[in-house]
Write a structure and sequence with these properties.
There is one protein chain. By secondary structure, this protein is mostly helical. The protein is built from 7 helices and 2 strands. A two-stranded antiparallel ribbon has the order 1-2. A hairpin with a 5-residue loop joins strand 1 and strand 2. Helix 1 packs across helix 2 and helix 3 crosses helix 4.
Amino acid sequence: MPFDMLLGAWVATGLTLFIFTFLYEDNPLFKVAEHLYVGVSVGYTIVKAYDTVVVRLIYEPMVKQGDWWLLIPLFIGGLMLTRYVPKITWMSRLAFAFIVGVGSGLAIPRVVSSYILKQVEDTFRPLLVLGETGGVTFNFNLADPTSNVNTIVLLVGVVSVLFYFFFSIEHSGPVRHAARTGILFLMIAFGAAFGYTVMARMSLLIGRLSDLIQFAAPGYGRASIWLLLLTVGLLIAWAFRSPERPTS
């Protein structure tokens, strides 16, 4: 096995085990892995941003393609650095105002189209569908997002949730029942979002555990086993050397 792959396996295994030590308590091993993760992430982001923005989007187009109009955004970006000069720090406001204005102008139509118009469009789907022979058909397939039963569920959910957030009248009688129905839909939506987040985190955990199992093979020098023993030994040594905590 190449040395770089073997070294990468040992480093990945060690840092993974160091991160897992936080399940015991905050300790120097976890802090080492945490600081390395943050430092490497920041360093990679800086290098990637320099390569993408400075080299590919500014230097190469201007020097190799003659797109000298890029000096205008370069000048606007340079104004942001004037924030570190107290006498001309006001010039940075011009750059920030331009960036916020352009960003808002690009983001607002996308947000309106994705979160408002799309939601309204889904509530206008037909409740019944005309068949090829002229008769009315009703699709009960819950797995089909465009089915008629899903259209009714979506319509009831949107209307009931709007009733829940409608505070101009007292929530009593039919309005109270509609608002309670909206609460159920909100809880289902929040639960689905939370479940999706948990599934994503579990996927990351499964990936790390799979790597630990893979790196325990003889081809990787049984990195997981040796580093696990080393990690446990370091935790034991740290626990005995740490000062006793006052009991209250």
